[in-house]
Amino acid sequence: MGKSISEVRVEDLVRAGIAEEEAKWLMGELNAAIAKVVVNINGELDQKELWRELTARKLLKPSHPHALHQLLYYSVYHHYDHGPPLYWFPSLNESRCTNLGRIMEAHCPKLFGASYKDPISSFKEFHRFSVQHPEIYWSIILKELPIHFLETPKCILDTSDKSKHGGNWLPGSVLNIAESCVRSSNYPNKQDDSVAIVWRAEGNDDKEVNCMTLKQLREQVMMVANALDNMFSKGDAIAIDMPMTATAVIIYLAIVLAGFVVVSIADSFAAQEIAVRLRVSNAKAVFTQDSIVRGGRRFPLYSRVVEAAPLKAIVVPAIGEDVQVQLRNQDLSWNDFLASVNHLPRPNSYFPVHQSIDSVTNILFSSGTTGDPKAIPWTHLSPIRCGAESWANLDVRAGDVSCWPTNLGWVMGPILIYSCFLTGATLALYHGSPLDHGFGKFVQDAGVTILGTVPSLVKTWKSTGCMKGLDWTRIRMFASTGEASNVDDDLWLSSRVDYKPVIECCGGTELSSSYIMGNLLQPQAFGTFSSASMSTGFVILDEDGRPYPDDQACVGEVGLFPTYMGATDRLLNADHEKVYFKGMPMYKDMMTKFFEQTIEYDR
Q: What is the pLDDT of residue 556?
């Protein structure tokens, strides 16, 4: 079963892949770290404190072989039986500089009085407060985000309509969330010359990273909004079926800014799957690309859209200025689409269409593995949850460069857009496959500080060695979702950046966010969640639908508390009440909301 850290010798370090001279030096440092760590009452080393000491001393380097990282991590935690082994620990000084820590320092002494200690010690109390008093919590958070209301909300939460389990959030407010994304703001620091998007196309690894300022983004979005007005009626649903490029992001924001509805379709779908989503959403047109380029090869996309439906298609070239396919008569090239506004005196100027907070902005879909996929509408409220959660749990802020390989057809695409543009962070996009060295070099060259992943991506990076030799040390955290994480893969990932945290996220399209995840105010263990997300409450239900006690480790189904800011309150092609609430148990006089996930919870 391996060795404990006290049994590790120089020859073990050499076998792990380092030279004997370095191994002798490292052995001396290990012994010094061991000598510093307190022995518990059983005469055993405090394993958590020893790992904390090793990482604080930065004895393990990103350049070291993974075998060495494995040897020390697994030997430190040899026969550890106190829950998931912790690998990252927040520092008190750094915790006070996080977004959450800063508002806790500002507000918690008034809210909690003498019981408030610091952001780390009082995090659980603040989280519990955010669940029990969501109106107060969200009134604080809304002041931290650059949300521009044409008409301010009458209140934070109205629970007078008992037919709505989750209440009405920000009732009476009028806004356009895309306007908040593209307008400048002093807080957070979003100026016109701030970099909004950086990107690079596959195959251009040695070229400079492309940059677009906030002003340039706003002008491009407004030009597309003007062109949309020439062709469609307000409220029309318009699909996007293309890779998540800078152009796709501009199209997405323009559709919302102009009062239309985005229909999100993944570019990996076959024609039949595209057709179902176009039919269910009643889309009037679709933006797509002529093809998808991966590894220097072209894969058809426009032809799949053509096969799916006879709708008007606006076709963006994957490479260069001109599309490389023959278009149908009703279709337009991207250049011709933009040329439709050339007659306007100010084509880059547009007055946003302001709508009530509950107006639909985006139709997303469940996976649809059985029957039609659920059509899940997002409103102007949903993006506020996206931005707020990233701000709070992932600590996204102005100055960050955030990259997450995804697609607008999946929930992470819109989440990524709003997580950046509502916090002042820069959105980083790689136009190509994230499986190769080129993506990793883009992460390095773009100065990415927050890198989102899917566990299968990390497994590929690790097994192929494609990221070897790259400098990712500007990354201050990773985020991971979509699949169950592997401890050893995450050990490899975190070790590439001096053991920065990998924040696990788990949520759903219906929630526009994660309901359980990690954060920077609690220690983190690989492949685990440390807390429910802010203002989120849930219970774990046994096979008979009975809630487990709050302090009991358990495996069961999740029952979410329905007062969940940003969650959808309707479905376009199914009975929302029947899908999410029928048959769910009551908990403390409150109907729980069904969420189709099994979870193991070690408290």
A: 82
